[in-house]
Amino acid sequence: MSQANLHIVRETYLREKPVFPFCKGCGHTLVLRKLDEALDALQIPPRDVALVTDIGCIGLADALFATIHTVHTTHGRSTAFATGIALADSVLAERRLKTIVLIGDGGAMIGLQHLVHAAMLNVDVTVLVCNNFVYGMTGGQGSSLTPEGFITATTPNGNVVPPIDLCGILKNSHAPFVARALATDRSLTETIREAIATPNFALIEILELCTEYASRRNRLGGSDLRDLAEQNGWQLGQIVKRTDRQPYFSRMVPTNGQEHRWEGRRIEAIQPPTHALRKTLGVVVAGSAGERVQSSAAVFSEVALGEGYSVTQKNDNPVTQGTGFSLSEIKIGPEPILYTAIEHPDVLAILSADGWREAVAAGWMERLGSDSEVFLDEDIPVDFNGAHLKRLPLRRMFGAEWTAMGLLTMLGVKYRIASFVDLLQAIRVAFGDRAADAVKTGYDELKKNEAVS
Ligand code: SF4
Predict the structure, then answer these.
(1) Which CATH number belongs to the domain containing residue 355 in this structure?
(2) Residue 221: which of 57, 58, 26 has the closest Cα?
(3) Each residue's pLDDT tens digit in the chain (453 positions)?
(4) What span, in angstroms and rounded, lies between the C-alpha atoms of 13 and 68?
(5) Residues 266 and 357 reside in one and the same domain
(6) Given ligand 1 and candidates 19, 23, 152, which is best to mutate, with the most ligand atoms within 8 Å of its CB?
(7) Least buried of 167, 221, 236, 330, by fewest C-beta within 10 Å?
(8) Residue 243, in any domain of the structure
(9) Three-state DSSP class for residue 51
(10) Alpha-carbon distance 314 to 284, whole Å?
(11) Which residue has the CA at smallest separation from atom 2 of ligand 1?
């Protein structure tokens, strides 16, 4: 963190006189106070903290903090949201954000894959797993972290299933920072501070008690947590601390800041918006599986993003990935897109018989507006006429594999979303010279026949 960031604007990151909503003695209060102390020790401006909470009692935490960015997410998904936030900050912004997840043991189990994946990627996210051994908010049911013998709502005679070792799983997922602590530990503030300070993925499993559902049933107090850890063989303290892993974003962004990289593909840096397109355009492309409909839509969308537009893309295909239809819905506009569905497509492109069948089955033909343009490959044997229908030899001109990309290139130029040269360059980077040559040849042929405006 640069010197310029080292100015503190609040004495506490918690709201003034916070009223903790938790039951008396709940470990969550202790954890949040220590998180506040750790942030204070780091003196991170509140605007540079993103707090992501999960479902459960701990999910009430975001309302208690005065940090600017808080996100309350669905069951187990907090780490996935945090991963996205951290990556966006690392790749597209100033890399100042510290993203912190607050999740319970229930959420950690529901979202275990998100934890594993964030550790594998090594994103700058700190996860505090508040493990009180039960699903507190829903009535004290056991989780996969409930110790053997523990009495819960679902194990009234004592849990007979051994718990998983969460820290062990994260260690084996290459997490660079893993620790286990007690909510009552004096050193917890320092452990949280260290975890947040590291530029790597960090997870602390914090053992605490749900006083409502765990303490009384199991006759446990805060002072019993250490014994509980010992009985279960749970190592306390720092378990992993390594500095040899590269953060994931370093694979995407070279240090000159001029361009963005994604697994070897080169995407031009985002340009200031030019917005030749004045209103949001809804494009539906329906073709066949294996004919690069969705990957072409992705390349087209990336180019539009690079031109400063807002873009959304939704894909659809049958459960069988390699047969039947393949469809992409793309929305592009000069303003943020707050509603991603396309009610009436501005452009419906039907590239194959599979695409036609799906367009009919999914009701796209009925949703055409009076101004909707329809592009239909001329070899599809259907009887359809419309005011703005264009039957073109798309498959013959571009070849089946590059029909979607060719059609989208035509649209990109027509609606002045990007130049032909930029689109062709993106195709070359994404798919190689053969694809770019096929699209250029097809485009030139269609232009010669005045099919391309
Ligand atoms: S139910 Fe349990 S976890 Fe929830 S606030 Fe009460 S003590 Fe805390």
Answers:
(1) 3.40.920.10
(2) 26
(3) 343 444 444 457 898 888 999 999 999 999 999 999 999 999 999 999 999 999 999 999 988 998 889 999 999 999 999 999 999 998 888 889 999 999 999 999 999 999 999 999 999 999 999 999 999 999 999 999 999 999 999 999 999 999 999 999 999 999 999 999 999 999 999 999 999 999 999 999 999 999 999 998 999 998 999 999 999 999 999 999 999 999 998 876 554 444 444 343 444 445 555 568 889 999 999 999 999 999 999 999 999 999 989 999 999 999 877 789 999 999 999 999 999 999 999 999 999 999 999 999 999 999 999 999 999 999 999 888 877 899 999 999 999 999 999 999 999 999 999 999 999 999 999 999 999 999 999 999 998 876 666
(4) 10
(5) yes
(6) 23
(7) 221
(8) yes
(9) strand
(10) 10
(11) 210
Q: Is 265 in the same domain as 244?
A: no
Please return the burial class of 230, using the count of CB atoms within 10 Å of its CB with bins 0-12, 13-18 and 19+. Answer: exposed
226: left (phi over 0), alpha (psi -120 to 50) or beta: alpha
Query: Which residue range forms the structural domain that includes residue 310?
Result: 260-448
39 Cα–ligand 1 center, Å: 24
Q: How far is Cα 295 from Cα 430, in angstroms, rounded to an integer? A: 9
Instruction: Give residue for tokens 């031109």.
Output: 307
Separation of 177 CA from ligand 1 center, angstroms? Answer: 28
Q: Does residue 136 have its Cβ closer than 6 Å to ligand 1? A: yes
Reported pTM: 0.68
Q: Are 245 and 264 in the same domain? A: no
Pairing of strands 265-268, 259-262: antiparallel
